[in-house]
Amino acid sequence: MVQTSTPTRTVELITVDTALTAVKAGLKESQNLGVGVSIAVYNSLLTLVAFVQGDGATPHSVETSKRKAQTSASIRRPTGTFSDNLAVALPLASGNLLTNLGGGLPIRFGGVHVGAIGVGGGTTDQDIVIAKAALSAIGADPID
Question: Facing residues of 107 across strands?
């Protein structure tokens, strides 16, 4: 097989400063909504970059926020969109790394995927609103 390109590639990753700004903005939005949440930001290589368990957040929200961010970073789209059969099979097949719970959104700048944010602790709709507020605060591409 003839190699026609370079043997390496460049991967774009969200910076720590940007991830922290997203977490702070999400936390502020959660406070405006009066809901305690946990917020996780992972880069596109599935490495945790920033995390907070907000005041009043439930203990399980720690894991759900992380799983939502990991899933969205991996699939590069919002969580909560799998078909029913995948909603059960995917967590089992991935050792519970991936989830179908809504509240995970990919982070893109100019169409370039750099990571994802996951919010857990509110209703699905609240988690999505909080995640979208965080994306807006960092100037990321909006998610419809």
Answer: 115
As averages over each run of 10 residues, the pLDDT of the chain (144 residues) reads 77 97 98 98 98 97 97 96 85 86 97 98 98 98 93
Supply the angle between the helices 16-33 and 124-137 in degrees, to the nearest 10: 130
The gap from C-alpha 55 to its chain's centroid, in whole angstroms, comes to 20
pLDDT of residue 5: 79
Least Cα distance to 61 among 126, 121, 124 occurs for: 121
Which H or E element spans position 59?
A: helix 59-75
Question: Strand order in 112-120's β-sheet?
Answer: 48-53, 38-43, 112-120, 104-109
Q: How far is CA 99 from CA 8, 45, 61, 66, in A?
A: 31, 17, 13, 10
Distance CA 96, CA 132 (A): 25
Token pair 């602790």 is found at: 121
DSSP structure class, residue 100: -
Contacts of 140 (CB under 8 A, 6+ apart): 22, 107, 108, 109
SS3 state of residue 89: helix
